[in-house]
């Protein structure tokens, strides 16, 4: 069973993908019970014919007890004055969720989707003491998808023609697109753009959410699909290499911080942390990104 904590736009989009593909049973958990039940009733009509999957909604955390995977998409739902106030409120929320998960289903694999992603992934793992390979923050894969899309628009190409696209570090203003690895029709991207263009693309990726919010309230489908891919990999035990946030213990020269790096995922969660070769500029930017996240954690 897949339990999804939070029945907003992202949580319900993930639930829809899981149910419409008959991946597994889904439980929606929301602080407002009627919201969870209503969304479950709607999504239940997307169950394919001859499928055995089901979806239910509740506000009762004890129902998560048989979960194999728990996805945290919840938000405080409060528009606060500053990033710091938002972070404090979200950290308080994740600590409360952590207590419930530790009580009822500590053996599940946890996917953190709520923001600030890297801070919440770190706090959750430290609060629960669940093995770090089973606490996975999902966001760098979304940033990578945005990177690939922006390159496809710039060069007027299909996204399938662009390979080895990854964004590492913070899911935030210090994220690091890895230009040195990107291939476009088998050509090195760095042979096609100069430093000024790199900086412009980096700014576009970092500000993508702001551009999107000019037209809709928040992102939904991109993060849902990226999260679904990880869920599917775990349930089907199909190994998937994807950038994700994990608490580091020396990898990339960093400790006691969670940030996006390439990992290999299977039925047990993160099977392997992959250390990719970076150029000097990328390595320096990744160090800055790690420290940015660490400073946020230390400010709590």
UniProtKB/TrEMBL annotation:
Active site: 171 (proton acceptor)
Keyword Oxidoreductase: yes
Positions of NAD(+) binding: 6-11, 113-115
Record key words, sorted: NAD, Oxidoreductase, Tricarboxylic acid cycle
Domain Lactate/malate dehydrogenase N-terminal: 2-137
One Pfam assignment: Ldh_1_N
GO process annotations (BP): lactate metabolic process; tricarboxylic acid cycle
Domain of life (superkingdom): Archaea
A GO molecular function held by the record: L-lactate dehydrogenase (NAD+) activity
Domain Lactate/malate dehydrogenase C-terminal per the UniProt entry, residue ranges: 141-298
Family from the record: Belongs to the LDH/MDH superfamily.
Protein name from the UniProt record: Lactate/malate dehydrogenase
